[in-house]
Amino acid sequence: MKLFDASPTFFAFLLGHILAMEVLAWLLIYLLGPGWVPSALAAFILAISQAQSWCLQHDLGHASIFKKSWWNHVAQKFVMGQLKGFSAHWWNFRHFQHHAKPNIFHKDPDVTVAPVFLLGESSVEYGKKKRRYLPYNQQHLYFFLIGPPLLTLVNFEVENLAYMLVCMQWADLLWAASFYARFFLSYLPFYGVPGVLLFFVAVRVLESHWFVWITQMNHIPKEIGHEKHRDWVSSQLAATCNVEPSLFTNWFSGHLNFQIEHQCQHTLPTPSLFPRMPRHNYSRVAPLVKSLCAKHGLSYEVKPFLTALVDIVRSLKKSGDIWLDAYLHQ
């Protein structure tokens, strides 16, 4: 079916529209000046560009664009480093753990977020042990203050820099430095030092909202806990779900709405359904995956987009309520 063949046109368009948004944002400030309205619009455009860069580097990290892995790795360094200011090695280090053991505590870094947030089985554990570092029964509320706004700006920036220094990833450090040099040299003449720092923070905060909502809508509402030692496909399906496709959702989420098809493929040498399949083919392979699930009695869950987003908050509230019940009565 040629489902492993990447479309050069598709990925060229992705890179092209990312670069176009970078240029458009700069032109807005250059032509209209650094007022509030042009700045807000430029920050919004740059945040979309940064979000789409996350998606493109993610494709490259999975070696799903070029036939030779080396070209994927080089291109990922450019997108992750020059376009985003992060380390490709850092991303792959944490992302491959996520794919190997999704939603497993201490093996998937995406859900090992206690004691800030309690997810899945950690709610009962913290409640029984009378641990109360934060008002976890209100975590669905303080999530809006420290979750989406700060993940990329604070957690990722610090973790990424620490990884490059500790692991001595000097090439990645230079790539990241090239991003900051380009960004600050491009906007410093318009804003000055305080203004360009504020502008950078605004872009990162907007980008961070996208990252949290899009990457977690498939995982946080699902089963989260300790290792269950299931077979490969069952463990993946227990940890993820799909979101109904549309042209907008496919583009906006980088096709992560086909999370089941994506989650069952990765670049590590363990069993998988579709290693390195380019994401524009997920919609074509989805009916095959769905029929496989039906054959073996496995759940293949698909949600509307807005429901998937709301379920993140519902899941946090449910975990917080479970913690409170265990804390008070056990």
Distance between the termini: 56 Å
Please compute the radius of gyration using only Cα atoms. Answer: 20 Å
Number of domains: 1
Spatial sequence of strands, sheet with the most strands: 1-2
Kindly state the number of beta strands.
Answer: 2
Poorly predicted runs are 266-272
Describe the structure.
The protein has one domain. Helix content is 65%, strand content 1%. The protein contains 13 helices and 2 strands; from the N terminus they run αααααααααβαααβα. The chain has a two-stranded parallel sheet with strand order 1-2. Helix 2 (36-61) packs antiparallel against helix 3 and helix 6 (139-146) packs across helix 13 (305-329). It is globular.
Name a few traits of the molecule.
mainly alpha, single chain, two-stranded parallel ribbon, 330 residues, 13 helices, 1% strand
Short description:
The chain has 330 residues and is an all-alpha fold. The chain is built from 13 helices and two strands, in the order H-H-H-H-H-H-H-H-H-E-H-H-H-E-H. Helix content is 65%, strand content 1%.
Task: Outline the secondary-structure elements.
Elements: H1 8-32, H2 36-61, H3 69-82, H4 88-100, H5 122-128, H6 139-146, H7 151-166, H8 170-216, H9 232-238, E1 242-243, H10 247-252, H11 259-263, H12 282-296, E2 302-303, H13 305-329
Parallel strand pairs: 1-2
Helix pairs in contact: 1-2, 2-3, 2-8, 3-8, 5-13, 6-13, 7-8
